[in-house]
Amino acid sequence: MASLKQRGINVYNWFERRLGLGKPTIEMAEHEVPSNTSSWWYVFGSAATVILVLQVVTGILLALVYAPSASHAWGSLEFLDHNVRLGWFLRAMHGWGSDFMIAIVLIHLMQVFLFGAYKFPRELTWIVGVFLLLMTLGMAFTGQVLRFDQDAYWGLGIGASILSRVPFVGGPLVDLMLGGPIIAGPTLSRFFTLHVFVIPGALLALVGLHLWMVLRLGINDWPMPGRIVDKKTYVQEYHKLTEKTGIPFVPDAAWKDAVFAAAILLAIVACAFYFGPFGPTGQPDPTIIETAPKPDFAFLWIYAVLAYLPPSLETPVMFIAPILAIGAMLLLPLVSGEGEKHWSRRPVAVLMVVVIAVTLGAFTRLAMYTPWSPIMNAWTSVPIPESDLKDRTPLEREGALVLQNKQCRNCHSIGGAGGMRGPALDSIASRMTEDQIIRQVLQGGGNMPAYGNALNPAETTALVHFLLTLRGGTLSPAIDASRKLVSSNEQSPSQVHLRPSASGGP
Amino acid sequence: MNPIEPQSPSDQINVTQPADNSKSAGHSRRVFLFKLSLLLNGAVGAVLAVPIIGYLLGPALTKSSNEDSWIKLGPLGDFPEGETRLVSFRNPVTTPWDGQTGDIPCWVRHISGNDFQVFAINCAHLGCPVRWFAQSKLFLCPCHGGAYYEDGSRASGPPERGLFVYDHKIVAGSLMISAGKMPTLAARNCTKPVLTQIRTNSTATLADERGLMPTEGSQSRNSPWPA
What we know:
The complex is a heterodimer.
Chain A: H1 2-19, H2 22-29, E1 32-34, H3 44-63, H4 73-82, H5 87-114, H6 123-146, H7 150-163, H8 170-178, H9 185-217, H10 234-245, E2 246-248, H11 249-275, H12 300-308, H13 311-335, H14 347-369, H15 378-381, H16 394-405, E3 413-414, E4 417-418, H17 434-443, H18 457-467, H19 481-491
Antiparallel strand pairs in A: 1-2, 3-4
Helix pairs in contact in A: 3-5, 3-11, 4-5, 5-6, 5-11, 6-9, 6-13, 7-8, 12-14, 16-18, 17-18
Chain B: H1 7-16, H2 20-61, H3 64-67, E1 69-75, E2 84-90, E3 103-112, E4 115-120, E5 131-133, E6 138-140, E7 147-149, E8 154-156, E9 165-171, E10 174-179, H4 203-210, H5 213-218
């Protein structure tokens, strides 16, 4: 046994004499860190690195089968899912790994922001981190394109349409993005190049730089209220703290990183196993237009923002907002590189995190049920509640048919079913008079198209009569106060003012 | 390595001790040569960069006039008067590995006689595929809810303008369109004035369409919906 051990040491020494990497690596692993940084809050960066390795490995394995050509990519994904042993599982791991990656990177970002880690002397570490975040999102978007299905095809269309709005150079930018006049083979090839070569290369290089700076400058010490960062004294204080409370990173602090990374990997495996791979949805055939394209989870909030921006603000916001946001993140450490690190002394920082998180969450939630989109098949698939048809005149029932046939339900719900683009019609007659309904239907307005050209007078009459029965059960109908005034003026000119308007309507 | 190592220290001693001048002279000569080599590599890099950048920018440098060409959509009989139909065509510029992505759909509206409108499938907002609803005479977009009237003009929603239109002509009883490039706000075939896609071929249709026009103007602000 002893000789075997000795032989092993000899082999190590043979390599070490030539490589010289063992000693600095061990020194790096055992470097002293302040003991208060051995915390469960400090595990997200290493977890993101571990997921990156997982993504690289699963990505290479998928590339063994994937065919990066517009005519075969979708088919090769189906082949992976159904014909390659465990191909579905590898796809699922890569897809869920991507979602976990973004989540962990965002948590890491939030943690280092709240812990003031971007302050002196770690400004550049933060700036590199901002680029790492952008590249992570770039990987997510290009990866979604490689899943060359309907969502990917129309997602590229959305991307091209956004780029086409860039002033002056929009057209050439679209050409560069698509690699040709339309979304086709060359488009997929360039996104393959970006996803497999360009972005990962830059990503790995910057991760190396990021880690190098963490090692060189030391991990951010646990912030304490009142412990102010001052460029003159910080480094000295940090070294004093490390000397006083220092523990070797490996193993005293690193075990938490290792446990968390293992838990995250297990979570990815579990999600991949139980939920399976993402898509592919329908094949990327643009002539199949019965589709409602949607981006992946990380970009849902953008999808929602694009639905809510007023047309006149859309283009400026599209291009100015990202520049401001990224610029602010890059400048943050340069502007506030000193001062308090602790979150309890930085209420604006905490408020910003909360507001941004709630905003992104709200937009993401909205994009999950897209209330702004018409439900394309509601007019044929959603019924009118029985109670709204009971004891109605033939004309009113005819109007209910018109309501269905003219696709009103695609945007308007009754009884909770139907589109949400327009207001629900359950109690429309308690809010609008007959004249108002007619005007609204024929001329549109307030985000509703005009139907004057799509309805003949008989259909309009029937539709309006049906709508006038929709009063939410017991609500009283809407009254045009001016009409009331006119009609009572005609009857008894002297007593108009005190008459209560008890009843009225059609 | 081994044969050289023992020599180099003695070399140094030999050189440094007798003549300091010659070393510094050699040093400045080597520095000059190094700078020259940097310059040389810079020049080679610049020469290399020309084809590389040219290759990268290739798609953007192609003249868009080369990409649009006339495509036959089918005989007029395929498009009944008063109807709007989905038609697909093979894009004139494709690669053999484009597969289905080279098939591009479009909406053909036969107004009457020889009056046609051919709309792009892509919503003018962000390019999603619009769907035609004959009963309500609307094009609806599934992504962000853009809506267009039957003549392609904007009805409601986020689009800033009407649907993109392909130029068309009728040759020997067939409908032909000029296509080839994905229609976007920046593409050449879409630089027409915003919100006016009505073709003024015949006075009859013009008058017909005028009936629609007031709705566009009046719909913008006077919303009766409670906010």
